[in-house]
Design a protein that fits this description.
The protein has 99 residues and is mainly α. Helix content is 81%, strand content 0%. The longest helix has 42 residues.
Length: 99
């Protein structure tokens, strides 16, 4: 289980770094979009929709990766509970709460 925990931590940190890269790219694209908006040429009118599309897709990628990172965190917490023998027995009372 130590190896699993290590790998979950490694994945979590890798996802964190990937999120940072996605945000940096999105920031650069936003700067390019703003510059194209100030430009006012016909070329700028062609560039803005492509940049907008790229930013929307990057944002969706970041959201998905962020969700996956949260799930990795939940998996790590579950593994930690298993290692410390802090696992609920799964039985519920009539109200749905744990006994």
């Amino acid at each position: 289980m130590d190896k699993s925990g290590f790998l979950l931590d490694l994945l979590f940190e890798t996802f964190d770094q990937l999120l940072g890269v996605l945000w940096a790219i999105e920031s650069e694209l936003q700067s390019a979009y703003d510059a194209a908006s100030r430009d006012g040429t016909a070329r700028a009118g062609e560039v803005r929709p492509a940049l907008d599309d790229a930013m929307v897709n990057l944002n969706s990628s970041a959201d998905t990766l962020g969700g996956a990172q949260r799930l990795l965190g939940h998996a790590r917490n579950a593994l930690d509970r298993l290692v410390t023998d802090d696992v609920p027995d799964g039985r519920h009372d009539k109200a749905g709460g744990n006994r």
